[in-house]
Design a protein that fits this description.
The chain is of the alpha/beta class and 300 residues long. It is 53% helix and 14% strand. Bound molecules: flavin-adenine dinucleotide.
Length: 300
């Protein structure tokens, strides 16, 4: 982390909430399901698909985890009702993984069952390393029952990911590959940008080798270019993969990829927890603060 980033990330958690709101507005659709739907409709109009995330994580109360489960089901129903092109992303700690694994399984099962009834899809976001094993376990249980309606995220910065990819891709499935956003120890994670990039492209090859569908979630030109090269070399049809980006990040690049004929999905977070979410992300990964600061002053 640069001195600049650490300075900004130190200051932002104490910044007035309205200032953080100005910044967050770019990355978060709003507080309500309708705010998310409006954003998705705009993205769909630009030829872009979406995945909606109802903000919430590290939930400690069963009542709240049940409410989060209902919100995710409401999102799926609203997607169908409003005929927008979006699926759903969920974090297992919002469905109660910190409370009890079986309880989280039941909640996830309810959400994915509803997605299956509606012909939609649920992506399990990957959280920090204490949750990796349990997230993969619950994914595999649900995937065995609903193979077309659930997918998982794999993080290229973890040493373990190459072997996870080999096991999971051999079972078939639908993956999102990202670098990983949490701060992890060097005993379990690659720390240099180049190592993470190399591992990312290695894992992407393994997924392609197994013929699995993949969401290439990155804004990094090295990875976007590397993925485009692999897609061209393998002659992959556009139905075999998609690019994925976060709301408000690198819009010109997103439009370029869509104009080139690639499928692209934008991650659309919404919810009342926008403030806590923004601050937690900044504390976890201060390098984001540099982007945020730039966004405040340049609007880019
Ligand atoms: C659709 C999607 C879903 C994700 N899901 C998960 C998940 O489940 N678990 C997880 O751990 N991580 C997830 N991530 C985050 C991911 O792991 C990375 O932390 C994040 O994408 C930044 O890495 P990068 O590959 O874009 O490369 P970077 O090198 O970080 O970014 C490349 C360039 O993109 C721009 N950029 C990147 N981030 C921002 C930003 N916030 N604001 C403004 N500009 C920015 C900058 O110009 C930067 O130089 C997800 C990312 C995406 C796109």
């Amino acid at each position: 982390m640069g001195v600049f980033d650490s300075l900004i990330s130190g200051i932002l958690p104490y910044a007035p909430k309205p200032l953080v709101r100005v910044v967050a507005r770019r990355y978060i659709a709003g507080e309500t399901i309708n705010d998310a739907m409006n954003t998705v409709r705009r993205l769909n109009g630009e030829g872009t698909m979406a995945t909606i995330d109802a903000l919430g994580e590290f939930v400690k109360s069963a009542e709240l985890a049940r409410a989060e489960t209902e919100t995710s089901i409401d999102v799926l129903q609203e997607i169908t009702r409003q005929h927008v092109d979006s699926n759903l992303s969920v974090k297992l700690t919002s469905l109660g993984l910190d409370i009890d694994t079986e309880f989280a399984y039941q909640n996830l099962h309810r959400v994915v069952s509803r997605a299956a009834e509606l012909g939609n899809f649920v992506r399990i976001d990957m959280e920090n390393s204490p949750y990796t094993d349990r997230t993969i376990d619950l994914y595999r249980r649900i995937h065995a029952e609903f193979p077309a309606n659930i997918g998982i995220v794999l993080q290229a910065y973890l040493h373990r990911t190459e072997s996870d990819v080999r096991v999971l891709a051999a079972e078939g499935g639908h993956f999102r590959l990202c670098k990983g956003i949490y701060v992890e120890s060097e005993t379990i994670a690659f720390k240099s940008r180049e190592e993470v990039q190399q591992n990312y492209l290695r894992c992407l090859d393994i997924i392609f080798d197994h013929g699995c569908y993949v969401g290439i979630a990155t804004h990094d030109d090295v990875l976007i270019d590397g993925a485009r090269r692999k897609i061209a070399e393998r002659g992959l049809a556009r139905e075999r993969y998609e690019f994925q980006m976060l709301l408000g990040v690198r819009d010109p690049k997103r439009r370029e990829l869509v104009a080139q004929g690639h499928r692209l999905r934008v991650y659309v977070p919404f919810g009342h927890d926008w403030y806590g979410y923004s601050i937690r992300r900044l504390k976890e990964n201060p390098s984001i603060a540099g982007h945020v600061f730039k966004a405040i002053f340049t609007g880019n």
